[in-house]
Amino acid sequence: MTIVLGANQYGKAETRLVRVERGGPRHELRDLTVTVVLAGDLAATHLTGDNSQVLPTDSQKNTVYAFARQHGVDQIEDFGLLLARHFVSSQAAISRARVDLSEYAWQRLGPHSFQRAGGATRTATVTVTESATVVESGVTGLVVLNSTDSEFTGYVKDPYTTLPEAKDRILATEVNARWRHAGVEGDWAGSYAGVRAALVAAFVETYSLSLQQTLYAMGRRVLEERPEIAEVRLSLPNKHHLLVDLAPFGLDNPGEVFVATDRPYGLIEGTVQRAEPGSS
Ligand SMILES: O=c1[nH]c(=O)c2[nH]c(=O)[nH]c2[nH]1
Predict the structure, then answer these.
(1) Mean pLDDT throughout 233-259?
(2) CB atoms near residue 129 (< 10 Å)
(3) Number of folded domains in the chain?
(4) 260 and 239 within one domain
(5) Is there a single domain that holds both residue 154 and residue 271?
(6) What is the CATH number of the domain that holds 111?
(7) Are residues 114 and 18 in the same domain?
(8) ipTM (interface predicted TM)
(9) What span, in angstroms and rounded, lies between the C-alpha atoms of 124 and 103?
(10) Which of 45, 141, 150, 247 has its CA 20 to 30 A from that of 72?
(11) Does an H or E element contain 137, and which?
(12) Does 4 map to a domain?
């Protein structure tokens, strides 16, 4: 029997970075979590414990902080590109660097005071290899709800089906989306705002026959409105809201009182992409 080392990667996960810009009395605040994942010729450390090609994950974390000081932190896509390119170009053994970034929003309360904004988190993933660079941006935790204009009917009824058909239900989800940019430079902030607005507008404006249909409408809207985006991947938990049976109390319930359940939940996932030229 021959045993061999398969795919492997390593890096520092979830470095927490807060950067204050003190240009004057009015400070700026950036709050990030940064994960570095490196891959390449790392067989020796696994097979023999020879660490001569291993850049410590501690050094990777230090690089995140040093670069934040030296280069500042503006758009997370740019900060990710800087880091990923650095690891591939400075480490002979490393052929692929992926940097995942999440940015938490803070609302200004004063010149040097901030309140953590709830709601969505902006994300980016930058992957650099010796031959290609890919930038993906995204959003997680964007919770949206339509209190009508949603049905779910006409589905398979097998011996285990008890779900009643719904002609008017609540549709709620937490939008977790990633979209791949066609290029590696651009107006990242404007693009993020535009994509997010397109996702939300499609959710609001689609009369939904299924969350699957809404998913496709959301991805499609992004590709229609944002030429810089090549592909959108969506992961949409169906945040079920079940009508409460109030008949035992002699009350009707015309779509007004619901129990919001948190698990189990349907999980609808899909990719919406541009067709290859020539395909229909
Ligand atoms: O929009 C929906 N899609 C489903 O696939 C599904 N399945 C289910 O039980 N409820 C729903 N709703």
Answers:
(1) 98
(2) 16
(3) 2
(4) yes
(5) yes
(6) 3.10.270.10
(7) yes
(8) 0.99
(9) 9
(10) 141
(11) strand 133-146
(12) no
Instruction: Give the full edge-to-edge strand order of the sheet including 133-146.
Output: 15-21, 28-40, 94-104, 121-129, 133-146, 171-181, 229-238, 266-273
* Domain co-membership, 124 together with 146: no
Report the predicted TM-score, pTM, of the whole model to 2 decimal places: 0.96
Residue 127 CB less than 6 A away from ligand 1: no
Cβ 270 under 6 angstroms from ligand 1: no
CA of 97 to the centre of ligand 1 (A): 38
The reply, when asked if residue 168 is annotated as ligand binding, is no
58 is in an annotated binding site: yes
Residue 104, ligand 1, Cβ within 6 A: no
Residue 276 has a pLDDT of 85
Residues 165 and 118 both lie in one domain: no
Alpha-carbon span 119 to 105, nearest angstrom: 9
> In the predicted model, is pLDDT for residue 12 greater than 90?
yes
Q: Quickly tell me which residue has 């919770």 as its tokens.
A: 143
Residues designated catalytic? 12, 57, 240
Compute, in angstroms, the gap from residue 266 CA to the centroid of ligand 1. 7
Which domain range does residue 77 map to?
Answer: 9-131
- CB 266 near ligand 1, within 6 Å: yes
176 SS3 class: strand
- Tokens at residue 220, please? 């499609």
The CA distance from 265 to 31, in Å, is: 31
Q: State the amino acid at position 16 in one-letter form.
A: R
Look at residue 2 and tell me if it is in a domain.
no
